[in-house]
Write a structure and sequence with these properties.
heterodimer; A: 735 residues; alpha+beta; 7-stranded mixed β-sheet; 28 strands; B: 245 residues; alpha/beta; two-stranded antiparallel ribbon; 5 helices
Chain lengths: 735, 245
């Protein structure tokens, strides 16, 4: 057997024959081994977005609040007082399935780097997690590892993890989702970007040394389906070191207070290769790198390994000529290396040298802007029509609604997440106003009266039944979560988790998802400023349900306007905003009590939704409300229970109007509704505001006693219900 | 008064503690760097929470060798006040300035929660404004907060009244369920023989603001001001237990 041909090497690197031909056309010669590897990672789905790029352009990305839209390390919005909120959500799904603890740590580490690369000090982390069924033998192991990893990185790094979500569904048995979000604060006029400029300017490598970990994470792990041999891919998972990154953060922020930096980019997926290519590409520049100057963790590494390593906690920056010593001095203070590994040129060519010999000589543009992109075939799956059929006439109502409620409160998707967030430091930074467990987390902006509301959301059961509505409702609910804590929704970051884009049904789901997000964002005025696409969430031909995670950021103008869901005092009036319809399709109730995922997700009227937001925010600013809670999975009954689970253990007594199935009233998930409580003397003013905003208002009852009483259909002890709700995860995950 | 807060590589709550000293107490807040060789004449040195040196060996095991720790030792021997919070408590134990050691939580998991602690003695600078039996609601957040010591040490501490705080339930009872980490005798904080050095696992600096975690932690800082006779509105205040959600 002879040496493999260049075409064979290209195939091994995940390049198709067409793509290899395209490389030959661009170069007019056969590529060298290292060059093929560079094409392999740069043209991977993960780096080039080749299946999604054409569609992502449909998303609204501009608005008066937007300081930086998609395309940089993270997005940024104006939050007043001369400050910017910088944020992004990103997936780390496959690595977390293969090696849950390290997969999750590096997911958090990577997103923190994306944010502080922009010059922002991270102030909060959220994690959006999807696991398989709790009954699947591997699930507890995965949950313990991922939660431990998320917690470890944030705790050690010193950024509070203040919220997120955890869902369980058998559809994720072999494809868990680990999406991590970070937000930071920067001076609005000092955002750093990753656009190289200035021929002769030094390219400086800072941070941890380069090792052999994570080679091909982007191309072979993130851009292909996970198969049964996933554990063999363990070497492609990187290892996180939050302590090293904490030092890197402090050194970078110190450097950013000077005028030495031209551009800076984190070495994330595809490491040195993507960071150097992308900086050069954005600036229309060329670059020369001396690979033999890169600090190495182990001896004998080849240029191929150095180019592709995904070792963590590294950054590449372009400084001004003459700033080299100043940069080094700052990093030395933090016991970090800063090494000049190359310089910027003006010829648009990427050159990587190894002991004086050029191993890579490639034009920059074809690898970045002109990477291939595909309009893959899309087709609506036939199964949808059957799944959307739901005849409520064949579904009996429970005999005991109290028992049904308790069963729902113990369902893995509705029970308390305390077992998870007890492992996260929620306090560090000293600005957490609303900790996990509310509709959205709230973090004060230091030195101001303002605060940020942060939430992630997506109901993949809705997505499975209608990918367009599912995506739209994810945006709408995340916005409503912000409103429920008294915040005006500003903008969002999305993490689009789908199956294999080479399958027409998956591509159709993806296109529907984009359209749903687009329509909701346009209506609500919340642009998409950053995000990530994660395809190939598929094992043995089975894809996950469409799961476009939406991470919404809202702004509270005065910390005293912040609302929480919990009842505050006996005698307060309980009011429901919005209209309840007979909607049980895709509900948690239908899944848990009747074992079916059927029907269509609840109807949404975006205009009614906007009016609800206006009403709640107006009432919050007039300080009329004592609590507010969004109605979501589990409907009215579950929302009432959740409001009762606050520190005071206060109960509630409400009555219901007739005219509809009782289970639909109690557990239906009609949209654009909110449950609030207030002092009785404010009721008239609230009615005026509701009339003004044209939002239906119904007085349900009042906060009273220590039981949850709904008409004559349901009466349960708050304390007993709370215990069952609180203990579920602990019991099922083995304490 | 002058508070000095030491930053080790990996300290996390240093900025929060400085902010409390300056903005909430209205005092002078001096950042101290771990390579400093003096504590710059402060009245009280605070070793803050965090993950000094990443806690890769053992929590606090590396930090005790930082140059500033010699100066902290001198300050303590001269009767100066020292408060170690969480990782700071671990460092003080590693440095031999406080008895016992902190080992992994018995659950083997990191725990973040609000706990109730009972003040066991008012005879320290940081509990001077309390009565024994007072209850404080304070956040904890640690993976290695299980305080342990040999029997003789425990007995001596007990006899000398050097257990400063214990984890209790909301009714003030020393029950196992109230102990977040499994420490011996529900111990949450201890003092040295001279009583000027106090270490505890809960975070008083995160309970100094009604909006972000209650105000019970202020008690410790106000007590130190009163002890030194350099406070503003120092002295005894009624602690409150804030019900968490």
């Amino acid at each position: 057997m002879g040496a493999p041909t260049a075409a064979e090497v290209a195939a091994e690197q995940g390049l198709t024959p067409d793509e290899y031909q395209r490389i030959l056309d661009i170069l007019g010669r056969e590529p060298r081994f290292e060059e093929i590897a560079v094409f392999g990672v740069m043209w991977s789905e993960h780096c080039s977005y080749k299946s999604s790029r054409a569609w992502l352009r449909q998303l609204p990305t501009t608005g008066p609040q937007v300081l930086q839209g998609p395309g940089e390390n993270a997005g940024a919005v104006d939050i007043g007082d001369g400050l910017a909120a910088v944020f992004k959500i990103e997936s780390h799904n496959h690595p977390s399935f293969v090696e849950p603890f390290q997969g999750a740590t590096t997911g958090v580490g990577g997103i923190l780097r994306d944010v502080f690369t922009m010059g922002a000090r991270p102030i909060a982390i959220l994690d959006s997690l999807r696991f398989g069924s709790l009954d699947h033998p591997r699930t507890p192991f995965l949950v313990r590892g991922v939660v431990g990893g998320v917690g470890h990185y944030g705790n050690c790094f010193g950024v509070p993890t203040v919220g997120g979500e955890v869902y369980f569904d058998a559809g994720y048995d072999h494809n868990i989702l680990v999406n991590a979000f970070t937000i930071g604060i920067a001076p609005a006029d000092r955002l750093f970007r990753a656009s190289a400029a200035g021929p002769g300017n030094p390219v400086i490598y800072v941070g941890s040394r380069t090792g052999r970990d994570g080679i091909h994470g982007a191309s072979l792990l993130a851009s292909a389906a996970l198969d049964a041999l996933a554990s063999e891919k363990r070497p492609a998972v990187q290892v996180g070191d939050p302590f090293a990154e904490k030092l890197l953060l402090e050194a970078c922020l110190e450097l950013m207070r000077t005028d030495h930096i031209v551009a800076i980019q984190d070495m994330g997926a595809a490491g040195l290769t993507s960071s150097s290519f992308e900086m050069a590409g954005r600036g229309g520049a060329g670059i020369v790198l001396d690979l033999d100057r890169v600090p190495l963790r182990e001896a004998g590494m080849s240029p191929y390994e150095i180019l592709l390593s995904e070792s963590q906690e590294r950054m590449l920056l372009v400084a001004h000529q003459g700033s080299e010593d100043a940069v080094k001095a700052i990093f030395e203070k933090w016991d970090l290396e800063a090494v000049v590994v190359g310089h910027i040129t003006d010829d648009g060519i990427y050159r990587a040298r190894w002991h004086g010999e050029e191993v890579v000589t490639l034009p920059v543009a074809p690898l970045t802007e002109r990477a291939p992109f595909y309009r893959r075939p899309a087709e609506e799956p036939a199964r949808l029509e059957e799944m959307q059929r739901l005849d409520l006439g064949t579904i009996g109502e429970p005999k005991d609604f109290g028992a049904a409620l308790l069963t729902l409160l113990e369902s893995p998707n509705l029970c308390s997440r305390e077992w998870v967030y007890r492992q996260y430091d929620q306090y560090v930074g000293g600005n957490t106003l609303v900790r996990p467990g509310g509709d959205a987390a709230v973090v004060r902006i230091e030195g101001t009266r303002r605060a940020l509301a942060l939430t992630t959301d997506c109901n993949s059961r809705y997505g499975r039944l209608d990918p367009y509505l599912g995506a739209m409702l994810a945006v709408v609910e995340s916005a409503r979560n912000c409103v429920a804590v008294g915040a005006r929704p500003l903008a969002l970051s999305d993490c689009l988790n789908y199956g294999n884009p080479e399958r027409p049904d998956v591509m159709w789901e993806f296109q529907q998802g984009i359209a749903g997000i687009r329509d909701a964002c346009v209506a609500l005025g919340t642009p998409v400023v950053s995000g990530n696409v994660s395809f190939y969430n598929e094992t043995d031909g089975r894809s996950i349900a469409p799961t476009p995670i939406i991470a919404m950021v809202g702004l509270v103008d005065d910390v005293d306007d912040v609302l929480t869901p919990w009842w505050k005092a006996e005698g307060d009036v309980v009011v429901l905003f919005g209209r309840t319809r007979e909607e049980l399709g895709g509900s948690e109730y239908l899944a848990v009590i009747h074992g079916m995922t059927r029907g269509t997700p609840p109807w949404i009227d975006l205009d009614a939704e906007k009016r609800l937001h206006a009403l709640v925010l107006a009432a919050a600013q007039e300080r009329l409300l004592r609590s507010a809670h969004d109605l979501a999975e589990g409907g009215l009954a579950v929302a009432l229970a959740e409001c009762s689970f606050g520190g005071g253990r206060l109960g509630v007594r409400v009555t219901l109007e007739g005219g509809m199935r009782t289970d639909a009233v109690l557990f239906g998930e009609s949209q654009s509704r909110m449950l609030v409580s207030l002092r009785r003397r404010h009721l008239n003013r609230l009615r005026e505001l509701a009339r003004r905003e044209d939002v239906p208002l119904e007085v349900l009852g009042e906060v009273r006693g220590h039981n949850l009483v709904i008409g004559d259909v349901l009466n349960v002890s708050v304390e007993a219900a709370r215990e069952r709700w609180r203990r579920t995860l602990e019991k099922r995950l083995g304490a | 008064m002058r508070w000095g807060v030491v930053t080790f590589p990996g300290s996390n709550d240093d900025r929060d503690t400085l902010r409390v000293a300056e903005r909430i107490l209205g005092d002078e807040a001096i950042p101290l760097w771990h390579k400093d060789r003096t504590v710059r004449g402060v009245d009280c040195v605070v070793l803050p929470g965090g993950f000094s040196y990443g806690d890769y060996l053992r929590c606090g095991a590396m930090a005790r060798f930082s140059p500033v720790m010699d100066a902290v030792g001198e300050h303590a021997r001269a009767g100066g006040l020292v408060l170690g919070i969480c990782n700071g408590f671990q460092i003080l134990c590693e440095a031999g300035l406080l008895p016992g050691a902190l080992v992994r939580n018995r659950s083997l998991r990191f725990v973040c929660d609000v706990v109730t602690v009972r003040v066991e003695t008012a005879d320290t600078p940081f509990t001077y404004g309390c009565r024994p039996g007072d209850l404080l609601a304070l956040p904890v957040k640690h993976g290695e907060g299980c305080w342990v010591a040999d029997e003789a040490t425990c007995a001596a501490l007990e006899a000398e009244g050097r257990i400063v705080f214990r984890y209790v339930d909301r009714a003030g009872r020393t029950v196992a369920e109230a102990n977040p980490n499994g420490s011996i005798g529900n111990v949450a904080g201890v003092t040295n023989a001279a009583r000027n050095v106090v270490g505890l696992m809960p975070h008083p600096e995160h309970a100094t603001d009604r909006l972000t975690g209650g105000e019970d932690g202020l008690t410790l800082f106000r007590s130190a001001q009163a002890w030194l006779g350099r406070g503003g509105a120092a002295g005894r205040r009624e602690p409150t237990v804030v019900p968490g959600p």
